[in-house]
Amino acid sequence: MKVDLVVLDMAGTTVQEHGLVYQALADTVIAAGGSARDVGDWMGADKYEAISAMLGRSDVDAEFADFHERLAKYYAETPPTPIPGVPEALEHLRSNNVKVALTTGFDRPVVDGLLDVLGWREGVLDAVVCVDDVPAGRPAPYMIFKAMELTGVRDVQRVLTAGDTTRDLQAGMNAGAGFVVGVLSGSQTAEELGAAKHTHLLKSVAEIPALLA
Known about the structure:
Blueprint: E1 5-9, E2 15-16, H1 20-31, H2 47-55, H3 61-77, E3 81-82, H4 86-95, E4 99-104, H5 108-118, E5 127-130, H6 142-151, E6 159-163, H7 166-175, E7 179-183, H8 190-194, E8 200-202, H9 208-212
Parallel strand pairs: 1-4, 1-6, 4-5, 6-7, 7-8
Antiparallel strand pairs: 2-3
Helix pairs in contact: 1-3
């Protein structure tokens, strides 16, 4: 089946950021007096939702601002980079009339900073959907549907979704995507990803053009 749209996660899937988002998340929760032992359960999720759940309260605006500051500091010290082979894969897909969108559990201010660092503002992507663009983050399928809306793709069976967390896979399955791909470039193992419903497991996004060929 032809694929019209490839929807990719950011951190751990297309962007190597060394797990700093989860370090910042854990440090934020600990500083607020909570426990970060469950931080791994929130991989791929809305970060505001994650902080709220780990602290057990709904109003975490101050903590969310603290998370932003910590993450900005960590990224300044260790700038994120594209995962090897990803820029070439994105270029190949788009040159073959496949649209490419990124979706992420980050909010827009964090994403804008990442795109600037990566040099991906112009000519690399067809759409970028942040968690604050939709009613709920993963495992809800809304970011995938928003990416379809922004790129004019109507048939979800002609969409490939890929990510490095089980939440990415759950969102893809919930959307009914034709291809739901787990990639092993992030922090979750093949066994962990394999426990969630999916259609394929790949080493990285770099292998997607070959899969579609």
